[in-house]
Design brief:
The complex is a heterodimer of chains A (255) and B (321).
Chain A lengths: L1 H8 L10 H31 L1 E4 L8 E4 L3 E3 L6 E4 L10 E8 L6 H15 L4 E10 L3 E12 L1 H4 L7 E12 L2 E10 L7 H11 L2 E2 L40 E3 L3
Antiparallel strand pairs in A: 1-2, 1-11, 3-4, 4-5, 5-9, 6-7, 6-10, 7-8, 8-9
Chain B lengths: L1 H16 L4 H24 L9 H26 L7 H26 L2 H4 L4 H27 L9 H26 L5 H31 L6 H23 L5 H40 L12 H7 L7
Classes of the chains: A alpha+beta (255), B mainly alpha (321).
Chain lengths: 255, 321
């Protein structure tokens, strides 16, 4: 400690002033240190952006990742749900996962139509905006439906406030005889700024555009998979899909 | 004959660079008291001053308040340090260049490129590491750039303590812009809590810039190893990060916690100013001792910091062989 302080107090054993070259060297070292710090800082930023937890929804599916700052919550209507407590809106940005057995002969388009009808009756001001053919987990066809509705989170909490226009996306895919719907939703005004968090979820699904020329109607469910054959097999408490995996347990994950 | 005159001039410059200026530290303490009075006015004497102002009025008043802590510090400094004050224009230039560089560098890099507000407060480790590596490094880089290049070769920078003084002026420029941005982002400011937050920011940047200023002052007047100035930047940047982290962990800047933040800021400022005062006094003593030793043809050896007086009395010529 004493030597350290001595060096701080008197870095040179003489009083000779620094040469111009030494001052330039000092400037370069300082510039180098600051650049190095900023590069490390950029790494920290990316680390924060990609920090995630993961949850197993179904033994047949890879784990779903969601942002580390989000909180999992129990839900009667979903196999898994989590929300962002730091959302800028009164409507907390959220993700929900629903699964149900796939019906005999059911295509993704049929599943989407079925869900759309039920959402239209359950959600005020429901409006479908877009639907695109995509792929998940490298080779499973999926449909991504974008829609909007009106939510009243402050009223639900017992307070008075303006309703919120919510934008949401359903990623619908069928795998191993199960139809899975991953829904992300946020205040429409905050939709763009939430994309970074959504990307963590999408990346864990390996969501990517479908090969060109593959229309949604062509994307049948996985052939040969076991199917539910009776309506009784489809428990639908509030939405289209059952919560037969409601005991999904989140766990801390890496990036 | 010429060489003798040159040596005498060198010795005189060295002695001048190593003068102790107690008025500097007195003015710093008075500036601290002035800032507390500023907080007291808006919180105790005129707590409802902004009650009847609309948003535009609050923004205008907020801007004026943003400038006040820095100006208060500089004016008090001038009044108290009147024996040999630095040129007003030079101090003002450093302050303004500090502000301009903050606008030109900190906001494009920190806010637009790094998007600090989207990740810095996500977790304790992101706040601590981001505070050091991005906020601290950027702000102290700006202080270094300002002092180094506004004062490059300027004969007014003739004492080691000037490094601290000018670095504090640059730090006040950064704090002023930070306060401006705070007012803008909040569409005006609650005058009570806002004044505390502004003083907290000002004290932090002034203190940590002072730490870097110490290193700049040393490097200006003597040869330093390659790591010396980067070490100064690293220490001051680390202090910035720790300061932000401690403030966040002890409260968050609203309500009662704002007062707690102020206490933390005062504590940091007093500790850092006290340490700097001690450090620069010892540094000046060592410089003068080396000067005398060189005149006598002796070599220099460092004294142990804590027992300098004792060793002085035991070893003739300060430990020289």
């Amino acid at each position: 400690m004493s030597i350290w302080l001595d060096n701080l107090m008197k870095p040179s054993p003489t009083n000779a002033p620094p040469a111009p070259g030494e001052q330039r060297r000092n400037d370069l070292w300082v510039a180098g240190l600051i650049l190095f710090s900023l590069v490390l800082g950029f790494g920290i930023r990316n680390q924060v952006y990609s920090a995630s937890k993961s949850v197993e929804i179904n033994p047949d599916l890879p784990k779903l990742a969601y942002p580390v700052g989000w909180m999992a919550q129990k839900s009667d209507s979903a196999a898994f749900a989590a929300f962002n407590p730091g959302s800028s809106s009164t409507f907390d940005t959220e993700v929900a996962v629903n699964t149900r057995p796939q019906r005999d002969g059911e295509t993704l388009d049929l599943a989407r139509a079925d869900r759309g009808i039920k959402q239209a009756t359950a959600l005020p001001g429901y409006r479908e905006l877009d639907s695109q053919a995509m792929r998940v987990y490298r080779n499973s066809p999926a449909l991504v439906t974008t829609y909007a509705y009106i939510a009243d989170p402050t009223l639900d909490a017992g307070a008075m406030g303006l309703p919120v226009v919510v934008q949401a996306q359903d990623i619908i895919f069928a795998r191993n005889g199960q139809v899975t719907v991953v829904t992300v939703a946020a205040d429409a005004a905050a939709w763009d700024e939430e994309q970074r968090d959504f990307q963590i979820i999408f990346n864990s699904l390996k969501l990517e555009p479908a090969p060109e020329g593959l229309a949604p109607a062509d994307q049948a469910s996985t052939p040969g998979a076991p199917r539910a054959t009776t309506p009784a097999a489809e428990a639908t408490p509030t939405g289209s899909f059952s919560s037969d995996q409601a005991d999904a347990t989140p766990e801390e994950g890496g990036n | 004959m010429q060489a003798t005159a040159s040596n005498a001039a060198d010795a005189s410059a060295i002695e001048r660079s190593a003068r102790n200026r107690s008025s500097f530290w007195q003015s710093s303490i008075w500036a601290l008291v002035g800032l507390l009075v500023f907080v007291g006015i808006f919180n105790l004497l005129l707590p409802n001053m902004g009650a009847n102002l609309n948003d535009a009025g609050l923004i205008v008043l907020g801007f004026l308040m943003s400038l006040t802590p820095a100006l208060l510090w500089l004016v008090i400094f001038y009044r108290v340090d009147s024996r040999e004050p630095e040129p007003k224009r030079l101090v003002a230039t450093v302050f303004i260049v500090g502000m301009l560089l903050t606008v030109a560098l900190f906001y494009p890099i920190g806010v637009l490129l790094f998007q600090l507000d989207t990740w810095l407060y996500e977790s304790w480790w992101s706040l601590l590491l981001g505070g050091i590596l991005v906020v601290g490094a950027l702000s102290m880089g700006i202080v270094y750039l300002t002092v180094r290049f506004v004062l490059a070769g300027n004969p007014e920078f003739d004492e080691r303590i000037d490094g601290i003084l000018y670095a504090v002026a640059a730090g006040l420029g950064i704090a002023t812009i930070a306060n401006f941005m705070y007012v803008l982002q909040h569409g005006g400011v609650d005058l009570g809590i806002g004044s505390i937050r502004m003083v907290t920011t000002t004290l932090g940047f002034a203190s940590f810039s002072g730490v870097l200023g110490y290193f700049i002052g040393q490097a200006r007047f003597e040869r330093t190893p390659a790591y010396y100035l980067p070490l100064g930047v690293a220490i001051s940047a680390t202090l910035v990060g720790i300061y932000e982290f401690v403030l966040d962990q002890t409260g968050g800047g609203f309500g009662d916690s704002a007062w707690r933040d102020l206490l933390v800021a005062i504590f940091f400022t007093l500790v850092i100013l006290g340490f700097l005062a001690w450090l620069i006094q010892r540094s000046n003593e060592e410089t003068l001792r080396v000067s005398q030793l060189n005149a006598a043809g002796d070599a220099w050896e460092p004294l142990a910091a804590a027992t300098a007086q004792d060793e002085n009395s035991e070893q003739p010529a300060g430990g020289a062989a």
